[in-house]
Amino acid sequence: MELARAFQEGGVLMFPIAFAGATAWATGVLAVILRSRPLGLVALVAALLTLGVGVFAWQIGLEEVRAALETVSGEYREEARALGTRISEIPLKFAALGAVPGVIGGLVGVLLGRSR
Prior knowledge:
5 helices, about 0% strand, elongated
């Protein structure tokens, strides 16, 4: 339940993060199983794409927090900033978790793989 709520709070860019992360994971596993350099490179590119979209979503979230803080009264500003910053970090954390298997599988596939 907590994971679904975090996914929803992360915003619309969570879907490309999830897709790119799943692609990185799947191609990373295949690169290790098949010992394929091309699949390893695809896994690394998918992992970098996952991280890139995560950083982009994080920056958009921080900008939304800055814009929202202009309308918040002074006594609630720090609380709103802390909550907004926590919510804006969700896509970045999902992207990092989604990219790790792709990076590991991609590196193993590239280093141990054979060209096909």
